[in-house]
Every structure is written in structure tokens, then in C-alpha cells.
Design goal:
InterPro entries: ABM_dom, Dimeric_a/b-barrel, SchA_CurD-like. The chain is α+β, with helices and mostly antiparallel strands. It contains eleven helices and 13 strands.
Length: about 400
């Protein structure tokens, strides 16, 4: 029996195999068109590094409902593909024959049956439940003939889905955009009996905007609900003239492309499970990675925060790392001043982490910060400006 740890965690960095489930609802009469599109898409995906296999299934109850499952060596391999411009272009033909889609992503925890052996083998002795970075000694023995390993142990969740959007505005418009983002009326938090918007935090760094949301329940339902609210629609229209990337919200294709490119997924979250004591401050740090180094940088920060949350003396109560391509944002809930332990807040406390961070950052042109003063300046440059932080009424 594997016991869940008290900490709350989610992570794309445990290197376990990933199962992606895509539910599709086709337009009437679009079946043949869909099958042609799927064949082309399958040929593209099959050559992507990390892809193992996929399956196409049709509902036996409603022939308009289809299911595509794909298996990947690890979540980072899949995320590198799904966040790429190649993926955005490859799925465009689907929109002409698919009414609605829903994507779900799962780490493979156990396998049972004649081909996989006993399920109990998935949890090796000494496995640390909920830890995203298992040691070599805690590695799951079943590697399923080179297809990647199983998730070492289950993680404890808190029923909250975390997601972010990021986009840039035209230089010189930052003050106007900040005023618009701070002054809009909050949308209704309750989506349905199962879903509600729990918290929205907006930050800026230069001309980059990051909107981080926390949802209890169904993220897709919440995002669709928010997009339909008149307060949010008015805000989106108001900032349109200031966006660097043009979009037309009245055109479904243009809106879909914009929000697909703006998506900034949460690749790691960890929080102490005992509940926060005292007042917490929310901070966000922006890390522009060197080309091709975004995932490695996100993994470095995630490992730092895993250790920090386990330390009873650490001011970090919770951390979420968002990453897409070479954009990395780290959201922290801290006890006390954020600059009390600048190296820990920046994510470089201990060892040679500052040197590793400098190697991965595109903005580390001044070399490796080593002294307390240098690290403090580095932290100040990385910190994003909080524009607004809103919680639903019963969470305030």
C-alpha cells in the first residue's frame, strides 16, 4: 500500500509515460473529411520524438463521437510538440469537421494484464509519494520494453486546476493596458454546480502580460464561461488595439489561434499540505530562457521548489511553474518579505544553481550572480509587477 504524502503536487517532470486522451464531437456528415485529416495528422505525429503510438476509436453509442488516444515517452516530449507552431498548423484542418474537442492528459501509474505483470510492481520499495524527482534507487522497475517508465507513486491533489495565458502589448502602451487590466469588473465565479473560478492573478513584466487562473472543477468549462461574460468581453475588446499579435474575437478561427498561442501551461505545482499559517504574499518571476532551454529551466526551478516546500523553515508555501517554449513564469505564495532570502525566492539557493540558471537564461548578460547584492538585483529584474489578484468571495 502506497501512502500519499501530505504535500500537494502535480508535475510534468517525473519522466513517466504519458497517455493523452482527445475526445471529439464531429459535425454531421463530416466523417470522411475527419478520417482524411486524421491520416495526415497521424503521419506527422508518428515522426515526432517521444511519440510511441496512438489509437482511433468510434463510439458504439453515438457514431459522431470519436476518441484519439496517444502514448508518449514523457510529458515534456508531448508538451514540446503540442506547444509548437507545427502543432498549431497541423490541427487547423480539424476545425472544419470537429464541433468540439476535449483533451485530457494522464501519467501512467500502473499497468495490469498478461503483458505487464503485477500492478504492485509499479510502486517500488522506498518510493516517495507525491515527489516529482525520484532518486535512481526509487525508480520503477517496469520500463515496458523501452517505452518509458511508470509514475513512481501517486500524488495528492487539491481539486484545483492551474493555467495561465501570456501575450505582449505594443511598447509604450503598458500603462494603459495595466489600467484596463486592473479596473475591469470581475466575472461571476460560479460556472455550474461542479466548477467555479477560484482566483485570477494578473502580472506584467515590461510589455508582457501573464494572467494566471485557478479553477475548481472543469478548466475548459470555466474558460468558456469567462469568455462569455460581458465584463471580460468588454475588457478583451478594450485591449485589442494594444496587442502586438492581431486578433479578431468575432472570428472563431482568429480567436482560437490567439488563445492557443497564448496558452502557458502549468508544468509543475507543489504546496505544503498542512495549510498556510499567517498571511501569504503572491509574487511572480519571469525567466526568459535561451532558445531551446525553456523546459530545462522549468525543471531546475521545479526541483528547487520541491526541496523548499519540504523545508519547514522555508518561506515558500506554494509554487507553480508555467512554461511554453522559452517562456518560464514562476508563481510563488510566500510568508514574509520576498527578498528576505533572495536566492531561495529566485530559485538558486545552494550548490551551483546560480551558475546553471545563468547558463539557461537569455537575459543573464551580466554573468553569474554570486553575492547577496547581485542576487537581490537579479531578483528585482525578474520580478513581475502585480496588476490585480482576485479571489472568489468565499476564498477572499
Amino acid at each position: 500500500m502506497t501512502t500519499l504524502s501530505e504535500r500537494i503536487s502535480q508535475s510534468a517532470f517525473d519522466d513517466s509515460r504519458l497517455r493523452v486522451v482527445l475526445l471529439l464531437d464531429l459535425y454531421d456528415g463530416a466523417q470522411n473529411q475527419f478520417l482524411e485529416v486524421y491520416e495526415d495528422l497521424h503521419k506527422q505525429v508518428s515522426s515526432v520524438p517521444g511519440h510511441i503510438r496512438d489509437e482511433l476509436c468510434q463510439s458504439i453509442e453515438n457514431p459522431s463521437q470519436w476518441l484519439i488516444t496517444s502514448e508518449w515517452e514523457s510529458a515534456p516530449r508531448f508538451l514540446a510538440w503540442v506547444n509548437s507552431e507545427e502543432h498549431v498548423a497541423s490541427v487547423q484542418p480539424l476545425h472544419g469537421c470537429v464541433r468540439d474537442t476535449r483533451s485530457l492528459r494522464f501519467s501512467v501509474l500502473r499497468e495490469t494484464g498478461q503483458d505487464h505483470g503485477p500492478a504492485a510492481a509499479a510502486f517500488p520499495p522506498g518510493a516517495s509519494a507525491g515527489r516529482a524527482f525520484p532518486s535512481a534507487s526509487a525508480e520503477a522497475p517496469d520500463r515496458s520494453r523501452g517505452r518509458g517508465r511508470l509514475q513512481v507513486a501517486p500524488r495528492r491533489g487539491d481539486g484545483v486546476v492551474r493555467h495561465a495565458l501570456t501575450f505582449t502589448v505594443k511598447p509604450g502602451s503598458e500603462a494603459v493596458v495595466a489600467e484596463l487590466l486592473s479596473g475591469y469588473a470581475s466575472p461571476q465565479a460560479r460556472v455550474d454546480e461542479h466548477t467555479r473560478l477560484r482566483r485570477t492573478s494578473l502580472f506584467m513584466h515590461g510589455n508582457r502580460v501573464v494572467r494566471a487562473v485557478e479553477v475548481e472543477g472543469d478548466l475548459l468549462a470555466a474558460l468558456r464561461h469567462v469568455a462569455l461574460q460581458p465584463e471580460v468581453r468588454a475588457l478583451e475588446e478594450a485591449i485589442n488595439p494594444y496587442l502586438e499579435q492581431d486578433r479578431d474575437l468575432s472570428d472563431p478561427g482568429s480567436a482560437r489561434t490567439f488563445f492557443t498561442r497564448a496558452a502557458l501551461p502549468a508544468v509543475h505545482h507543489v504546496a505544503a499540505g498542512g495549510g498556510a499559517s499567517g498571511e501569504l504574499g503572491r509574487h511572480a518571476l519571469f525567466y526568459p530562457a535561451k532558445k531551446g532551454c525553456g523546459m530545462e529551466l522549468a525543471r531546475l526551478l521545479a526541483a528547487q521548489d520541491e526541496a523548499a516546500v519540504d523545508d519547514a523553515g522555508s518561506p515558500i508555501e506554494a509554487s507553480t511553474v508555467f512554461q511554453r517554449d522559452d517562456i518560464v513564469v514562476r508563481l510563488l505564495d510566500l510568508r514574509g518579505p520576498h527578498d528576505a532570502r533572495p536566492a531561495l525566492t529566485l530559485g538558486v539557493e545552494g550548490g551551483h544553481k546560480a551558475a546553471v540558471l545563468a547558463r539557461l537564461l537569455d537575459s543573464a548578460k551580466d554573468g553569474v550572480p554570486t553575492t547577496h547584492q547581485e542576487i537581490s538585483r537579479f531578483l528585482e529584474r525578474s520580478e513581475m509587477r502585480l496588476i490585480t489578484d482576485r479571489r472568489s468571495p468565499d476564498r477572499a
